[in-house]
Design goal:
2 copies of one chain form a homodimer. The first copy, chain A, is of the alpha/beta class. Chain A has 2 domains: about 70 residues, Nicotinate-nucleotide-dimethylbenzimidazole phosphoribosyltransferase (CobT), small domain (5,6-Dimethylbenzimidazole Phosphoribosyltransferase, Chain: A, domain 1, Orthogonal Bundle), CATH 1.10.1610.10; about 270 residues, Rossmann fold, CATH 3.40.50.10210. In chain A, about 50% of the residues lie in helices and about 10% in strands. A 6-stranded parallel β-sheet of chain A has the order 3-2-1-4-5-6, with helices on both faces. In chain A, strand 5, helix 12 and strand 6 form a beta-alpha-beta unit. In chain A, helix 6 crosses helix 10 and helix 7 crosses helix 9. The first copy, chain A, is globular and about 70 Å long.
Chain lengths: ~350, ~350
């Protein structure tokens, strides 16, 4: 794939990500699971998860990995077109709720023992709070149905800011970097990105998001069609696609994927918007997908297509359609369990159990 | 359905379980989720789980519920017929491993913050250890392919012991009672119970368990056919079916289901053997199924049929085929999350978020 990696800073990230994950560590972790006092492979997907993490972390014994959820919020020009059941001001209101600790993701992050880092990537009105990281690219994106959502420079600035944040967290010891999103209108932006990058038909990737009715769904499909017609994005230029159709929070999350992958983190995806951001990252640096884990599959029709495009199978399928990183937070205990089993279980030999299942 | 509830002690349990779960509490919990600062229903299955638990616990605010995993082990006459990849002595070896803390379930119970109670329901050779609860019905069951696996009195004794254990745990504050099983040969016993109770064809409910080859699978199907022919069980008499075809650990787990349901616990199932034990419980006391939650679906073909027979949809689908309560332990964080959201999330009003999604 040809990507315009000459864009500032990206080339070095892409180069670092292109280093393959460690197949030796994967094989050693598989051998370690196989030696445990249980039938081979009997922990199914959990063993696949643990061996993938070993390959990403480049060690057969990854230990326990501290987790952080980066929850990026942004507003969307699309929202002016009635594509959501909620008005745009809800993005900022939810940002304030995250800061106050009362949202679903606050509860779920606490339950999972994960750090929650809330980022203002560009909501309409800034919310001043010490717990919100201001990485504002602008006061909401422009209306992509008539022209680019943002400039190429803004897209690169957002990617760079997200990547720097991921590297900062990795330097602080974070091993699992989970993504979360908040932005009224952002499933429309995600759908538009997918139509251009997978590619896919607009009506195949537009869903009800957090709950639009039939008319709203028709407006979403129409908005995506108009955005494609107005911008004529080139799939071979993923940064250009992101600038034309994306959102500020999605662009920051693309950067978090790239920075996390470059820093050797396990990048844990959430729902459809984070999936679209990850797809952009994988189109910029294909090897980034090897560092990603899909926490869940949402009912949003585009989500299954994105995960297939990334070559990922979801851990959970619980009908979640909230976003915020909620599905990622719910999958964190599975990540923790896979690693704990690798670390703490006795082998057949240690336990004195007959290993007849070789 | 006619059941022989005149059997000692069972009638009173069945009577207690027949009290319907609390639909008022379910509706109030639903209203509580709907008032939270998130689109209605956007947490999908998690909200259904929380409202079910509210109905079972008879309160819209169940709070956090302490969990215990009852892991019952027993040996099976079936195992003498080469139906497992492992020899019978592995049951006792694993019981010792549970006591020593090195098995998968020890790790997973610790991760989930759940108490683990290991029960010897009748392994061939007893394992003396202070952490093992001896509820031995006998030194392994008889060979069900030539006659009853146990006497009716033994089946009732096992049910009674399991029910008493569940009531003891409930009295100590346990709100979620998870089931786990260990017993070489017990997926054959589970398959036999399902053929009689669902009913189903032997080859539709026999699978590879922890890993038998094609010949072993053929021997399983044959063993189930011979057990049905030798015992000619009557589905209208579930205790009789259990005695004819079951295992000691499965009979104890049937009792745990009944005692747990009677005591108002959420009964969390694990894989196929615990599902079969739960099916027996539901045939004895149909309303017991309303108190059950299916933690996961295993690749064992009978498991999906059992869950359908119980009217339950699994939370996880991770290819788990270990048993021990491992799937139940992995689902406990989802139970905890559903309850934490109900308890801790802010409402639209508290958060000052526009509730346009009514």
């Amino acid at each position: 794939m040809t990507t315009r990696t000459a864009d500032t800073g990206l080339a070095e990230l892409v180069e670092r990500i292109s280093r393959p994950v460690d197949e030796g560590a994967r094989a050693a972790a598989r051998a370690s699971y196989d030696a445990k006092a249980k039938p081979r492979g009997s922990l199914g997907t959990l063993e696949d998860l643990g061996t993938r993490i070993a390959a990403i972390r480049r060690t057969a014994s990854p230990g326990r990995l501290p987790a952080a959820i980066v929850l990026a919020a942004g507003d969307h020009g699309y929202a002016r077109g009635g594509v959501s059941a909620y008005p745009p001001e809800v993005t900022g209101q939810m940002l304030a709720t995250f800061a106050a600790g009362g949202a679903a993701i606050n509860v779920l992050a606490r339950e999972a023992g994960a750090r929650l880092l809330v980022v203002d990537a560009g909501v309409l009105e800034p919310v001043a709070h010490p717990s919100i990281r201001p990485l504002r690219i602008g006061p909401g994106t422009a209306d992509a149905t008539v022209g680019p959502a943002m400039s190429r420079e803004q897209a690169l600035e957002a990617i760079s800011a997200g990547a720097a944040l991921a590297e900062e967290l990795a330097a602080e010891g974070v091993g699992v970097l989970a993504l979360g999103d908040m932005g009224i209108g952002n499933t429309t932006a995600a759908a538009a990105l997918c139509t251009a990058l997978l590619p896919a038909a607009p009506d195949a990737v537009c869903g009800r998001g957090t709950g639009v009715d039939d008319d709203g769904l028709a407006r979403k499909v129409d908005a995506v069609r108009r955005a494609l017609a107005a911008n004529r994005p080139d799939a071979a230029d993923p940064v250009g696609v992101l600038a034309a159709l994306g959102g500020f929070e999605l662009a920051v999350l693309t950067g978090v994927c790239l920075g996390g992958a470059a820093a050797g983190c396990v990048v844990l995806l959430d729902g459809f918007p984070t999936g679209a951001a990850a797809l952009v990252a994988a189109r910029i640096a294909p090897a980034a997908a090897e560092r990603m884990v899909a926490s869940h599959r949402s009912p949003e029709p585009g989500h299954a297509l994105v995960l297939a495009g990334l070559g990922l199978r979801p851990l959970l399928d619980l009908g979640l359609r909230l976003g915020e990183g909620s599905g990622a937070a719910l999958a964190l205990p599975l990540v923790g369990a896979a690693l704990a089993l690798l670390e703490d279980m006795a082998t057949f030999g240690e336990a004195g159990v007959t290993d007849a299942g070789r």
